[in-house]
Specification:
The structure is a single chain. By secondary structure, the protein is of the alpha/beta class. It has two domains: 336 residues, Alpha-Beta Barrel (TIM Barrel); 42 residues. The protein contains 16 helices and nine strands. Strands 1, 2, 3, 4, 5, 6, 7, 8 and 9 form a nine-stranded parallel β-sheet that branches. The radius of gyration is 22 Å and the shape is globular. The termini are far apart.
């Protein structure tokens, strides 16, 4: 009887405890902006509506769409999101002038989102802007460039992108580019080339944060050698938790701490879960085998792959596994160096418990459940990346007084 009474007491206590934790999160987010370091809505606008906002009404629910989204303005409000770095990703197949034009079109989408919904969104260019906009009850909109291919090997395009509002650039995406090696492609530069180092230096001078998600470990080290400002990982996990090449190795984490940078933990299942990563690797190998087996018969290869998937169901990632990445980074280098970069609308599925932007605070509740302090939660939610952004602005002010804009040329620097 006593055991039954204790069990009933625990069942009733759990909801009360969770409610108390949610109140603590609410209190933290009332004073500290919840910053999502990476959201792919701009490409969703392009791919679903050819960049026409009137055909993708983000001010209303997008859950009913044929291809539902993880993000809309009502759910950003429900998730108490205070700021978003909208990713202006473009395909890695684009190069030179075509890449530059396309990324400017993507930045234009962000500007038009802000103009269309000024009661909810406001463009932010500085860390102070984010704080001010949050206090005013709006969502700060920032621009993050995903992939150095976006500048077409041209520092004038980098400077123009900063003028357009870009406040970080991921040095590569999936593919290695002429001046920087990617984590998921064959290396060509052993990290950064001389021009790649000059890109980092010019980003420091401008006040654009150096984002090391997607780059190889050698590129991470070279960028940390070159950067005078804190670096960020806008959407990455811990390699020690899941050995996906996109995640951050421990020796790099140690250098991020010394640099006072920030790793913004990603929600994309392949980066989160080692089981999902292993399954994806096996599926890719099986798809290649079947394609070779059924040359000239794509329907047969597709049917065989579907049969393989039915026999080998894809595992699910979870909110708890995302928290495991946060735990590892905290244990290794401290909560001061952690943020959140969801990758929402850049993934086909998402971890159980983190269905869309409205659920982001549930991660903070889980971290409180694991013993994190309110101050640590405030830093992870947004305080840490805003500190890195403000420090980058201070470095830029000094460097602009010390040196003019770089006149480096990709091909001149790379010549033997």
């Amino acid at each position: 009887m006593l055991t039954l009474l204790l069990s009933l007491a625990l069942v009733h206590a759990a909801p009360d405890a969770d409610a108390a934790l949610r109140k603590r999160v609410d209190k933290v987010l009332a004073r500290t902006p919840l910053v999502d370091g990476h959201n792919d809505v701009p490409w969703g606008v392009r791919s679903r509506a050819q960049r026409r906002l009137d055909e993708l009404p983000l001010h209303d629910s997008t859950e009913h769409l044929e291809r539902p989204m993880h993000t809309d303005l009502p759910r950003l409000r429900d998730g108490q999101v205070g700021a978003v770095f909208w990713s202006v990703w473009i395909p890695t197949s684009l190069e030179g002038p075509e890449a530059i034009v396309t990324v400017f079109e993507q930045m234009d989408v962000v500007h038009r989102m802000v103009e269309r919904w000024p009661d909810t969104l406001e463009l932010a260019l500085t860390a102070d802007d984010v704080q001010r906009i949050h206090r005013a009850g709006r969502i700060a909109s920032l621009i993050g460039m995903e992939g150095g291919h976006s500048i077409g090997g041209n520092l004038a395009a980098l400077r123009a992108s900063y003028a357009m509002g870009a406040r970080y650039m991921t040095l590569t995406h999936w593919k290695t580019i002429p001046w920087a090696d990617a984590a998921t492609d064959a290396p060509a530069n052993d990290g950064l080339s001389p021009f790649g180092v000059e890109v980092v230096r010019e980003m420091n001078r401008l006040g654009m944060m150096v984002d090391l998600s997607h780059v190889s470990a050698a590129t991470m080290h070279d960028a940390l050698d070159a950067s005078e400002a804190p670096v960020i990982f806008s959407h990455s996990g811990a390699f020690a938790v899941n050995p996906h090449p996109r995640n951050v190795p421990d020796d790099v984490l140690d250098r991020v701490a010394k640099n006072d940078g920030v790793v913004m933990v990603d929600f994309l299942p392949t980066y989160v879960s080692e089981e999902v990563y292993t399954w994806s690797t096996l599926r890719e190998a099986e798809a290649a085998r079947l394609e070779a087996l059924h040359i000239g018969a794509p329907a047969a290869a597709e049917a065989a792959l579907a049969a393989w998937e039915e026999a080998h169901p894809k595992p699910r990632s979870t909110l708890a596994q995302v928290a495991d990445h946060v735990d590892h980074i905290r244990k290794r280098i401290g909560a001061r160096h952690i943020g959140i970069g969801t990758d929402f609308d850049g993934m086909r599925d998402q971890p159980d418990g983190l269905d869309d932007v409205s659920a982001i605070p549930e991660l903070l509740v889980e971290l409180l459940r694991r013993g994190y302090s309110d101050d640590e939660i405030a830093g992870i939610a947004g305080g840490n990346v805003l500190r890195a952004m403000a420090a980058t602005e201070v470095v830029a002010e000094r460097l602009r007084a010390e040196r003019p804009a770089s006149e480096a040329d990709l091909y001149q620097l790379e010549s033997p």
